[in-house]
Amino acid sequence: MSPHASRVAFRHTLHAEWVKLRSLRSTWCTLACLFAVGLGITSLATSSAGAEHESASAAERAAWDPTNLSLTTYVVAQLIIGVLGILVVTSEYATGLVRTSLAATPRRHRLLAAKVVVATAVALVVGQALMFAAFLLGQSLLAARDVPHAALGDPGVLSAVAGGGLYLAAIALLAIGLGTIMRATAGALATLVGIVFLVPALAGLFPSWLRGLLDFWPTRGAAAVFATVPDPAYPHPWLNLGGMCLGVVAVLAAAFVVFRRRDV
Amino acid sequence: MTMIDVTGLTKRYGPDTVVDDLSFTVEAGQVTGFLGPNGAGKSTTMKVILGLAAPTRGSVTIDGRRYRDLPVPLTEVGALLDAGAVHGGRKAYDHLLALAVANGLPRRRVGEVLARTGLEGVAGKRAGGFSLGMRQRLGIAAALLGDPRVLIFDEPVNGLDPEGIRWIRDFMRSLAREGRAVLVSSHLMSEMAQTADHLVVIGRGRLIADTSTSEFLRRSGEGTVLVRTSEPAGFALRLTASGATVREGTESSLVVSGLTGAEIGELAAYHGIVLSELTPQRPSLEDAFMELTKDSVEYQGVTA
């Protein structure tokens, strides 16, 4: 018998999940896509800003938020980072690999926790990197057009940029939860699109008691964190983001429950 | 030594009882063939052994412990349930490395199992491009990573070419010779007769037979002798008079049971009868298996 650990520890499971994530080409493709699309949208959004600012009224100029403008790329970026989170779980179900993984790590909560930790760490790093890159790129493009622009040291800017990175990481976590519950890529992705796009778009149809929930909804209230000019509807954007994070925790909790109980 | 102990195992999916009060053991140092028609509950039983499916009733232990309580699972049990269970985008080496580090096994084990299964040459290739035979080998390599004392294979020869089948068969035998307990499922009786020392036969989730392979072969019939002669009718009478059972075979041959080939030959010589053929026939294992499981096949075809 070969020498080995006398007991499997959480760090072993973490290491294995990291090997799995980094050894897939799809991981790196998704990340490359995230930056290409994310920064592409930032440059599109800011390059048309010169004309907009020119023709803006005084009131519109007062509400001019160059930080928010450069970060609007989150709308699409959240979907791509969501795909990454979904695939961490559903690619194992699609191939049957999940059985092999669970044979190696029969403690199911430990396996899912390792996936959550590894994917969160990656999502935090790339989410922050994307938001900072988008901000810097966007501001330099605005500066080139002689439109009012922001610097990282300006009031509220760092909070918006770093908060944006956290927002993206939270969406990745939500995606892992959805992937675990749905067990299929298509179903999980459709649900994610429904949450971040359809529900906000159809918000007007909801009864008033449900609309309170939208204050903490992705792309709605929780996205107030991206602004530096305070929105009167959301005076404390971090509370809205915190509310969304609580919702993500609830989805993850459900994911842990079903992952333990189901046969695979 | 008992390595796997299945006790009173019952598994229901909704109203369907897939495994019904099943008990058997798998011993070290031998290949145990797990036989049954498709849908008999073999794969489900294996999933319960590995903790992938929860039993409705009953229990399974590996060397006295539940699978999920094994401190380092891959060093105790290696399993190949489905050769396709590999992410096609991952290289063979990385697939094995992820499993090895998950159990704190040294990195060199990956190279060792790749060598033992003859996959060194494709270690850096993505598993998506592997043939079925190569995927089976990769699955076996994964099962061997922790140098386990118990190995579980679900239908390992399904879809393989003759060379692959022979390789897997020899491999199972060598694993058992090393003292490991090997549980291998199949729906092919003839395959198991050549590989297994012990047979556990199930049908519709129930135990039908739990016996050594040699005992199973002995009980499944003593065999017949095919006899061809120019005067079959007369010789048939003499054979019957000597206590044999005779029925007509194809092309005016006789199928004789109850006498050995030598006895039939002596009888013919004594009566001066010329035999043109005298062929002892092995009992058909598939026949014996079909006979055993005919009441428990899920969907029976109608013979035209």
UniProtKB/TrEMBL annotation, chain A:
Is Transmembrane helix a UniProt keyword of this protein? yes
Q: Which residues cross the membrane?
A: 28-51, 71-90, 111-137, 157-176, 188-210, 238-259
The keyword Transmembrane helix belongs to this UniProt entry's keyword annotation: yes
Q: Where on the tree of life does the source sit, at the highest rank? A: Bacteria
What Pfam families does its record include?
ABC2_membrane_4
Q: Keywords of this protein's UniProt record, alphabetized?
A: Membrane, Transmembrane, Transmembrane helix
Q: Tell me the protein's name.
A: ABC-2 family transporter
Q: Which organism is it from?
A: Saccharothrix carnea
Automatic annotation (TrEMBL), chain B:
**Record flagged with keyword ATP-binding:** yes
In terms of SMART domains, this protein maps to: AAA
Q: Any idea which GO molecular function terms this record carries?
A: ATP binding; ATP hydrolysis activity
Domain ABC transporter, first and last residues per copy: 4-229
List the keywords (alphabetical): ATP-binding, Nucleotide-binding, Transport
Report the domain of life of the source organism: Bacteria
ATP-binding in keyword set: yes
The protein depicted here goes by the name: ABC-2 type transport system ATP-binding protein
Give the originating organism. Answer: Saccharothrix carnea
In the record, what lineage is assigned to the organism producing the protein? Bacteria, Bacillati, Actinomycetota, Actinomycetes, Pseudonocardiales
